[in-house]
Amino acid sequence: MSPSHIERRDVTDESHTFEWYRDGVERPLWRLFSAFGTDRLGYFGVGLFTGLFERLASLVPPFVLGVAIDAVFTQQTAYQLPFVPEAWIPSARIDQLWFSFALIFGCFALTAVLSTVRMLTTDYYSHHLMYVVRTNTYDKLQRLDMAFFDNQQKGELMSILNNDISNFEQFFDDALTRAVRIVTVLVGITAFLVYLNWQLAVITLLAVPLLTLFTLWFMRRVEPVYDAIRGSVGAMNTRLENNLGGIDLIKTMATEPYESERVADVSYRYFETNWDRIKLATVYHPGSSLVTNASFAVTFLVGGYWVVVGPPPLLSGTLTVGALVTFLFMSQRFTGPLKQIAVFIEQYENARASGKRVVGLQEMPVGVDDPPDARDLTAPDGRVAYDDVTFGYDAGDDPVLTGIDFEVDPGETVALVGPTGAGKSTVLQLLMRMYDVDDGRVALDGHDVRTLSLSSLRDAIGYVSQENYLFGGTIRENITYGTFAVAEDEAVVEAAKAAEAHGFITDLRHGYETEVGEQGVKLSGGQRQRIAIARVILTDPEVLVFDEATSDVDTETEMLIQRSLDRITADRTTFLIAHRLSTVKGADTILVLENGEIVERGDHEELLQADGLYANLWKVQAGEVDDLPEAFVDRVARSD
Ligand SMILES: Nc1ncnc2c1ncn2[C@@H]1O[C@H](COP(=O)(O)OP(=O)(O)OP(=O)(O)O)[C@@H](O)[C@H]1O
């Protein structure tokens, strides 16, 4: 029986896919901000305020200029400035000029200082936020179960961790300051314009409702386009990642033209989706510019008419040249940032589409996780039991394993043999909880593996497979992966000797410090396997799993490794999967799997006497018969 708190995720169900979670995300930017953005919020606040005062300070010079024109040059009005006591204002014209210069220059200097503070704080905040979101998203990704990775392309995940999270940073850095400018415009300059001349301000502000309607139109249309762009970036990364990973296959199959076409297809899809965005942007950007420029031109016309002829119809009062110049300067400060709304909206839509993908990933449930009251396995004995286990990778399909039932005492060696695709590797994946059983249970030391903490469970098991991953780095770094700095040099050498790797390592010019290349490409398959075996020996686990772990080494080396392993596996529970039956001959128990079921079990002698599938496979491998009997050929073929 499964513990009640564990529900297995049906990866074939649409409602459990990444796409389903991504599409269901609402207000992604707010979600990311509230989850991760509150740390260092002080920087955000300082950036926001300095940005605001920076804009306000930049508004003072044109205002002073207008006053100076009217009071110093044309002498139409007295020299007066709001918030400045009259006693501070000099009476001589030349002193008023110097005073104006000091104010203008002082504001420029203040703007520069505020700008530096704003850049430092917002850049720090947004880059720190990007770092936090990226590391958290990666941590989450790492916890997701194998079923997720089986169904997800790595290129797509790379584009989320890389491009999408960077978009998020850009939004909070660049778009934030843009937003500050826009807010300053809408509040600050509007107040200034109204203060200067409310009648003329109404004319300038007519652009706002028009621009709002136009922006809403644009947002509705561009939203799905940005979703498509982010999707096409993911698809392109997936294609490139696949092709670079399979470059040797492409070369040996001479499929370069075919692959060039496939890359061209995804690149073209990216171009097309971008082109859709550009088409919309080419209407929106110039359109919104036209609206704001038109408001400036109309303000100029109405104000000019007012100065030359007198108040236009419906307007009243007087307007001096200086006041008009100030107003026009101000309204340009108004229209300039107003045009920035278009850029902000695009950045927002881009970040929103990226945010959906990041939050979608964050929301994916972890199918295989620590239970709430996880038990830590301490000093395990290595007793393993499979209790009538049934398992299938995809819930809709036939199970891959049915009725798997066996027990292993501590220190025993159990071999799993059988035709390819029979389910041997799957059986052992369940022991490490790479997947959870559908029915029945797998137990270690009497505990259902689903009740144990994943780290203590996996610490107890050392796993070496046919395809071992080596990280770019030195041989020493790869052997000590998992034990890291704890591993003593002598222990590393001992482990390498036991894995028959010491000899070939010391033959290399740089010995243990030899760089293995990406994924160990600079080593042979057999050398990689031996490094992986040394790595596992060094971790000193209670249970060892060798899944075709010596398939890439020659028979002599395999025998040497076997000899060393006999010593290491003597008092540990060991599982062996091997097609080469000589490797498993000495196992305490051999389980023969066919079509996901255990069809024979016993030791080597017992199975030979039973004269079933194992005995026939043995006879072929030992050269006692040239071929399998017809009946077994049929069985093996059917089981694949
Ligand atoms: N990640 C996966 N997702 C879906 N199906 C899978 C997955 N891994 C394996 N299978 C299927 O499960 C079945 C058993 O595979 P498994 O790798 O356990 O067989 P095996 O006996 O170890 O084969 P081999 O000897 O070739 O390694 C196969 O039909 C395979 O196609």
Please characterize this protein's 3D structure.
This protein is of the alpha/beta class and 640 residues long. It has two domains: 18-363, ABC transporter transmembrane region fold (Up-down Bundle), CATH 1.20.1560; 374-460 and 575-640, P-loop containing nucleotide triphosphate hydrolases (Rossmann fold). The chain is built from 20 helices and ten strands. The protein has helices at 18-23, 28-36, 41-73, 93-143, 146-151, 154-205, 207-245, 247-252, 256-308, 321-363, 424-431, 454-459, 475-479, 489-498, 502-507, 525-539, 555-569, 604-610, 613-621, 630-639, and strands spanning 384-391, 401-408, 413-417, 439-444, 447-448, 461-464, 543-547, 573-577, 589-594, 597-602. It has a six-stranded mixed β-sheet with strand order 6-7-8-3-9-10, with helices on both faces. A four-stranded antiparallel β-sheet has the order 2-1-4-5, with helices on one face. Adenosine-5'-triphosphate (ATP) is lined by residues 150, 393, 400, 420-426. It holds the Pfam family ABC_membrane.
